[in-house]
Amino acid sequence: MQIVTPKQMAKIEEQSEKLGVSREQLMQNAGRKLAELIIECSAREKYDSPEKLHITFLAGSGNNGGDCFAAAGILVYRGFDVTVINLLKAPSTPLAQKTFEALPDKVRVITGYRSETVAAAVEAAELDYMTIQHTDLNEKRNSKELSSVDKILVKEKQRMNDVRNAIVNANILVDGVFGTGFHGELTNDIKAIFSIGTGAYKIAVDIPSGGDSKKGTVSPGIFTADETICFGCLKFGMTQFPLRKYCGRITVADIGIPAQAFSVTNGERKYFRIDRNQLAGFPSKRERDAHKGNFGSVLVIAGSSSMRGAASFAALGALRSGAGLVRVASVEKCIDTVSVLVPEAVYTELECDDYGYMLFDSNISLIKEAMEKASAIVIGCGMGLTNDTLEVVRYVVQNAEVPVVIDADGINCIARDIEILMNRKSDVIITPHVGEMARLLNCENRVITDNRIMAAEKYAEKYGITVALKGAGTIVADSRNSASNHTGNPGMSRGGSGDILAGIIGSVAAQGYTPYDAACAGVYIHGLAGDAAAEKFGQEAMLPRDIINCVPDSFRILKEKQKNMI
User: Fold this and answer.
1) What pTM was estimated for this model as a whole?
2) 255-267: average pLDDT
3) How far apart are CA 192 and CA 104, in angstroms?
4) Most buried among 204, 346, 401, 421, by the most CB within 10 A?
5) What integer best gives the mean pLDDT of the chain?
6) Same domain, 76 and 27
7) Distances 559 to 68, 296, 528, 536, 555 between C-alpha atoms, Å
8) Structural domain count of the chain
9) Which segment, 46-55, 153-162, 496-505, is predicted with the most confidence on average?
10) Is the same domain home to 236 and 300?
11) Residue 418: which domain range?
């Protein structure tokens, strides 16, 4: 599924207008789609009549508020009890103003923001109107003599009571305060309003207010939606955590943007949500007369005496995902273990130092010979970080003529000497988690967490490689494309899971797919296998070995989905 950034969406809407579908028509279509969703949700409430179901819109001053106004006008004519709360200020864009002015009289409108005059007066008086109790309000309202400050306090408390009651009494609460252009932090007033307790079903318009639709980060106090309706296209940041968990169920609504309008982003980076449509050519059909040579040979250079499982998982990941042959090059103690767990693989035994890590000089001829037979190479899992392993990584990356997947300690070697990437001969795929990406960029983990998309894209562009930045919503990026994966679950957060992924990506690359396609297919299949394992064993109890055993389930699920494509 193609998805977009906020800037691309703005360009697409502008192009739509040039193609004859105006912004006003898009807003009316968005309002109609929002109204249809609300009517669908209201049907679940099973009220005797629409007027008994209360719908409250929290509207901003921009076009997101305009979408709410358009929906409110439709719903009130259908008999629903509709309230609109303008939370920021009066509608400020021409479209929002026009749609607001067209609201039927039956729509109750509440001014939910402080005027500048009132705000200044309250601040000058150093009073907190929020602390006034309801009984105080009644006393002040009934008083014959009110000071100017008391009048302000009464007016402000009444406004807040109206806002609170409209939210508390709502059956459906719609958030249209901020759109996809939001970044930064919500004000304390908006946070307070979003925190009002209500049993309403919550719908966000385009994005929950407080979310950054490019980065996927959130402001404290973000609106928590049960469902989010996206107009035109899903925005990339909504595939990323933490924003994704505040969106609830996501619906993408067609609002009539001409297909030709999307061509305005041609030449720009393309964004995708990895799904069965993108993987339509994977796995390729296996002919009756096929043999192991048709499906590639994966060389796994991995493991050490103290980290044997990593090599096992990488080899099993490659075998389970279709590679014709898998060769493991590692030290003796590692091979002794791996050969029992993975008898289908073949082995190249490497000499090691006194600590069980592979050496370089004494192994170079064996590594070179193994490389010549490979269709793809996976390197780094459980190797350890020594001067010798760094030289092994350097030699492999700079001499391989087939795709190289670099994981774990292989990435740590690159972080020590980035020149390794600069002089490579072939395609490279790196599979870092946040900590490893931070080492590559020499920054704090938090910087990567807050800028996952940018980190993956810029690193891929700078070095001309493919980056699979692991985590919830794994990002795959090369110099032209970015994709977000939605399969997988927290049960996969265990040591060994990443080794499996490296093996799967290496296997797909060995079968002839481009590095970007191999990474996309790998993370998708890996996540599907994790979901199947979670269903069988539960997220708490599942182990990486269960992910391996469920890779066949992931292929079955993928093929069923592809078969059912319309």
Assistant:
1) 0.90
2) 95
3) 29
4) 204
5) 92
6) yes
7) 41, 21, 12, 20, 6
8) 2
9) 496-505
10) no
11) 295-563
